[in-house]
Amino acid sequence: MAGRFKAQESVVEAASREAREELGVVLAAKDLVAVTTMRRSQQTSLAI
């Protein structure tokens, strides 16, 4: 699962939304714990 943050969205809110959109799984943001995130360069899409 991968995705992008929307404006004013926390990491766990984004994860919850992406799980619902991409996998059809409903996860409450309050039940999730952020472990890590990865940023990608807008120019190359490589991890930075």
Would you spell out the secondary-structure blueprint of this structure?
Blueprint: H1 11-23
Walkthrough of the structure:
With 48 residues, the chain is mainly alpha-helical. The chain has one domain. Helix content is 27%, strand content 0%. The protein contains 1 helix and no strands. The radius of gyration is 12 Å and the shape is globular. The relative contact order is 0.19.
User: What is the beta-strand fraction?
Assistant: under 5%
Distance between the ends: 19 Å
| Count of alpha and pi helical runs | 1
Shape: globular
Number of strands: 0
Helix residue percentage: 25-40%
- Contiguous low-pLDDT stretches (5 residues minimum) are none
Mean pLDDT: 85
Largest sheet: none
Taken in chain order, the helices and strands follow as H
Structural class, from secondary structure content?
Answer: mainly alpha
Structural domain tally: 1
Calculate Rg over CA atoms. Answer: 12 Å
What does this entry show, briefly?
The protein has 48 residues and is an all-alpha fold.
List keywords for this structure.
48 residues; mainly alpha; 1 helix
